[in-house]
Amino acid sequence: MFSSRPKKVTPPPKISKRILVVDDEPFVGQAVRMVLTFDGYEVKAANGGAEALASLEQEHFDLVITDYSMPGMKGDELAVNIKARWPRMPVIMLSAYAENIRASKNPLPGVDALINKPFDLADFRSAVSGAIAGKDTPPPAGQ
Fold first, then answer.
1. Which residues contact 89 (CB under 8 A, 6 or more apart)?
2. Where are the alpha helices (H) located in the chain, listed in sequence order?
3. Cα angle at 49 between 106 and 21, to 5 degrees?
4. Is 139 part of a structural domain of the chain?
5. Which of 45, 97, 107, 113 has the most CB atoms lying inside 10 A of its own CB?
6. Is 13 inside a domain boundary?
7. Residue 97 is part of a domain; what is its CATH number?
8. In this predicted model, what pLDDT tens digit does every residue of 111-141 receive, in sequence order?
9. Which residues of the chain have pLDDT under 70?
10. Model-wide pTM > 0.85
């Protein structure tokens, strides 16, 4: 028999954007992942540049967020490698040395946005959403 009650229609699941977080410091990487997961993104972690490149070879991501200072391959080197293989992949770099990098006036090829670490949550979220949307990411406050 048929029920007289209308059947509840479940909307299709929202496709979340995938972000790869690259940081050699587990505590920092975990904090960034927690914020992004809370904001509804699917997040995967990599402990360094080589692991990040291997993940990018195997899986699709919409954004890479990387630390600058890492052993082996620094974040700027990773960004160059990413852009060589995936030119449209947005890359955000987090660094405790962001102000020094900006002051040097040397551009970081492959880096779409540079954010101070520790970061202002609103600036971080703005940069992430801008990069995901394919827009130019706004520079963090103070630039």
1. 56, 61, 63, 64, 82, 83
2. 26-38, 49-58, 75-85, 98-104, 121-133
3. 90
4. no
5. 113
6. no
7. 3.40.50.2300
8. 999 999 888 899 999 999 999 988 444 443 3
9. 1-15, 135-143
10. no
Using alpha carbons, list the distances in angstroms from residue 66 to 20, 47, 99, 126, 137.
8, 10, 16, 16, 15
133 closest CA partner among 17, 11, 1 = 17
Domain extent for 41: 18-133
d(CA 97, CA 80): 19
Number of domains in the chain: 1
Asked whether the beta carbons of 23 and 66 are under 8 A apart, the reply is yes
- Among residues 43, 7, 41, 42, the alpha carbon closest in space to that of 22 is found at 43
Q: Which whole-number Å values give the CA distances from 55 to 20, 29, 68, 141, in the listed order?
A: 8, 16, 18, 31
Task: Kindly state whether residue 100 falls inside one of the protein's structural domains.
Answer: yes
2 class by beta-carbon count within 10 Å (0-12 exposed, 13-18 middle, 19+ buried): exposed
CA distances in angstroms from 62 to 3, 25, 37, 115, listed in the order given: 44, 22, 14, 18
